[in-house]
């Protein structure tokens, strides 16, 4: 009957709220789509082209695109495969997966799949052991969303012409109120296109305004935008010129089981479920910070605690911010589950203490 201790270092218990938000910003005004692929690696999966100033080197010259999804958890929802080479173990061996599509291993810095399958784990898509996946990003557009790199080398392919941004990409999407609140080109003159008339009905996530032929956003989302101020959220800044930001978060699990039949310790695992954060945000869950490597489980003594960590990683192409006072926010749940009750949580005095909601606040300085 192990439960998450009510105090998690650097974390705040989330509060469930209903938000009648207006339209939602996809690209910051004045920029193009930052994740636009300028050059891909071509058929051999190796990047040969050096990014020009302003673009981001998504893959090292001579290497494959790093940290591509490599292995999915199988139908048993247990991570069985042991990362080989420089591949990264995203879910500890023996750890639980949210579902069969959970990525448990990625390709690491060299972008080459080097992990053999174990159990019923499966490769992602057309991934082949020892072969870098073809046509993956070599160079992406970076902070301004405008391609700067021309003349690809080797078998690399030019996907976006130098000096251009990806045209007609989503700038503003329909929010939960299902009304198009935003008028195109309300920040500066531009060629953004109004796809749903202002004030008209729209469906959730429908594109209301796109970036037009020039690919540069000149529109800022309008409509209800209720912003709850909370303290001690996990705050992350993606520095200007950086492609991502990573932060390690600490947690503790207390065994507060009561009663004469309580065993001397309980074996516990941690799961990450639900939430609104981008895929791959939560990684490297480690239940025992005192033991080298990632530990999928830990024994928590009766009346004692175990301390662990997990990492969060945010990438600039997944984040849009238009003001330092209006950070990108997302949440996910972390749950402690006793192995002898898994997959169900325990039936302790307060089952809700097994789960906490983690708030992330992210500012992408490249957008500002």
Tell me about this structure.
This protein has 368 residues and is mainly beta. It has strands spanning 3-4, 24-25, 37-40, 56-57, 69-72, 88-89, 103-106, 122-123, 137-140, 157-158, 170-173, 193-194, 207-210, 234-238, 244-254, 265-273, 282-286, 297-301, 305-315, 328-338, 355-364. The strands form 5 sheets. Strands 14-21-20-16-18 form a 5-stranded mixed β-sheet, with no helix packed on it.
List the SSEs and their pairings:
Elements: E1 3-4, E2 24-25, E3 37-40, E4 56-57, E5 69-72, E6 88-89, E7 103-106, E8 122-123, E9 137-140, E10 157-158, E11 170-173, E12 193-194, E13 207-210, E14 234-238, E15 244-254, E16 265-273, E17 282-286, E18 297-301, E19 305-315, E20 328-338, E21 355-364
Parallel strand pairs: 14-21
Antiparallel strand pairs: 1-15, 2-11, 3-9, 3-10, 4-9, 5-7, 5-8, 6-7, 11-13, 12-13, 15-19, 16-18, 16-20, 17-19, 20-21
Distance between the termini: 47 Å
Spell out the helices and strands N to C: EEEEEEEEEEEEEEEEEEEEE
The CATH first-level class of the domain at 3-17 and 228-367 comes to Mainly Beta
- Assign the CATH architecture of the domain at 3-17 and 228-367: Sandwich
The chain-level mean pLDDT equals 87
Rg, Cα atoms, Å: 23 Å
**Total helical segments:** 0
The geometry reads as globular
Strand coverage percent: 25-35%
| Helix/strand class | mainly beta
Biggest sheet statistics: 5 strands, mixed
SS elements, strand count: 21
Biggest sheet strand order reads 14-21-20-16-18
Task: List low-confidence stretches.
Answer: 1-20
Fraction of residues in H or I helices: under 10%
CATH topology of the domain at 3-17 and 228-367: Immunoglobulin-like
């Amino acid at each position: 009957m192990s439960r998450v201790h009510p105090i998690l270092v650097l974390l705040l218990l989330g509060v469930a709220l209903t938000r009648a938000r207006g339209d939602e910003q996809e690209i910051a005004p004045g920029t193009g789509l930052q994740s636009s692929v300028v050059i891909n690696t071509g058929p051999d999966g190796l990047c040969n082209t050096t990014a020009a100033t302003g673009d981001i080197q998504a893959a090292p010259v001579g290497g494959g695109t790093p940290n591509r999804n490599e292995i999915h958890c199988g139908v048993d929802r247990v991570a069985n495969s042991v990362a080989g080479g420089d591949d990264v173990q995203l879910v500890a061996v023996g750890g639980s997966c949210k579902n069969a599509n959970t990525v448990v291993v990625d390709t690491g810095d060299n972008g080459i799949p080097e992990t053999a399958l174990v159990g019923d784990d499966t490769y992602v898509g057309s991934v082949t052991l020892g072969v870098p996946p073809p046509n993956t990003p070599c160079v992406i557009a970076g902070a301004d969303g405008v391609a700067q790199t021309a003349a690809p080398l080797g078998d690399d392919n030019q996907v976006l012409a130098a000096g251009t941004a990806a045209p007609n990409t989503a700038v503003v999407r329909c929010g939960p109120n299902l009304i198009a609140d935003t008028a195109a080109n309300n920040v500066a003159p531009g060629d953004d296109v109004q796809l749903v008339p202002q004030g008209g009905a729209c469906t959730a996530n429908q594109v209301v305004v796109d970036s037009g032929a020039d690919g540069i956003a000149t529109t800022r989302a309008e409509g209800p935008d209720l912003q709850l101020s909370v303290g001690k959220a996990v705050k992350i800044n993606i520095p200007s010129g950086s492609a991502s930001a990573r932060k390690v978060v600490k947690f503790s699990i207390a065994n507060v089981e009561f009663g004469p039949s309580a065993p001397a310790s309980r074996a516990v695992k941690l799961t990450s479920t639900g939430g609104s954060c981008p895929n791959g945000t939560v990684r490297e869950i480690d239940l025992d910070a005192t033991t080298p490597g990632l530990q999928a489980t830990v024994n928590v003594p009766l009346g004692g605690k175990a301390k662990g960590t997990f990492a969060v990683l945010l990438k600039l192409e997944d984040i849009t911010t238009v003001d330092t006072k209006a950070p990108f926010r997302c949440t996910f749940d972390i749950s402690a589950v006793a192995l002898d009750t898994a997959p169900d949580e325990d039936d302790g005095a307060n089952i809700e203490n097994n789960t906490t909601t983690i708030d992330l606040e992210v500012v992408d300085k490249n957008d500002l």
